[in-house]
Amino acid sequence: MTYDRLVCANCASPVSEGRCPVCRASRERLQQQDGLFGGLTPAALIALLVALIAVAVLAHEMATVA
Ligand SMILES: [Zn+2]
């Protein structure tokens, strides 16, 4: 994430510096989002791969039946 470039609406300093409670809350929320996507992306890729393999197998079976 590029939250280091975000400027706080409350204290007008970079959110990444965490100078006020609003900054710290925003920073924490964004970091949690980062962690969520970091854990989600590999799992999503594996799920996509499994789905593609399933489709390929189904298509192959359909081709051999027909
Ligand atoms: Zn602030």
Distance between the termini: 49 Å
Specify the overall morphology.
rod-shaped
Computed CA radius of gyration, to the nearest angstrom: 22 Å
Q: What is the overall number of helices? A: 1
Overall number of domains: 2
Helix content range of the residues, please?
A: 55-70%
What hetero molecules are in the model?
zinc ion
Number of strands: 0
Summarize the entry for a quick read:
The chain is mainly alpha-helical and 66 residues long. The protein is 68% helix and 0% strand. Bound molecules: zinc ion.
Which key features would you list for this structure?
68% helix, rod-shaped, single chain, 2 domains, membrane, binds zinc ion, 1 helix, mainly alpha, transmembrane helix, 66 residues
Task: Describe what you observe in this structure.
With 66 residues, this protein is mainly α. The protein has 2 domains: 1-34, no CATH class; 37-66. Helix content is 68%, strand content 0%. It has 1 helix and no strands. It has one helix at residues 21-65. The protein is rod-shaped and about 70 Å long. Bound molecules: zinc ion. Residues 8, 10-11, 19-20, 22-23 line the site of zinc ion (ZN).
